Amino acid sequence: MTRKIGAGVLEIFHHTIASISDPLIPTAAELNAGTELTGFLTDGGLATPLDGSIVDAADMGDAFNKTSSGTFGGQPLTAELFRETPTDTAWDALPRGTDGFFSIIRFGLATPGTFAIGDDIELWDIEVVSRNRVDVARNDMQRFNVECAVPGVPLEDFVIAA
Q1: pLDDT tens, position by position, 21-51
Q2: Strand extents, DSSP E, 37-116
Q3: Is domain 11-159 annotated with CATH 3.30.110?
Q4: Are 10 and 105 within 8 A, CB to CB?
């Protein structure tokens, strides 16, 4: 078993809503039309929580406090990205109110930057709710945060088949 760090391996892309015809079965060609954001993502700048809820199921017939599984998800996907000049690719790709998708490849694509059949990805349906500039400070690169609603269940461990 090989364990890998995210730095230098993880890849992230943004896709417009129109670029993927069926988000349950995205194709390599559709995914390759996305905007790569890997080089803009800050260290520790991606959070994709899918927390679950535990529901109290205890009754008076037993002294054991039973629990059951409830819903999961509902937390925002957040990312912190660098600003750049003269072309501000990440900032321009993610205006407030944008519907689209993030594809996240935690262990890298077989060919970096290019989706192909057999690649294992995550696909997150997102809507950019907020896009905030990070406070400017001496000796700090300019960055911004996006917070995204997740209106659909993300595809986890999706293997591209076409």
Answers
A1: 999 999 999 999 999 999 999 999 999 999 9
A2: 41-47, 52-56, 67-72, 77-82, 99-105
A3: no
A4: yes
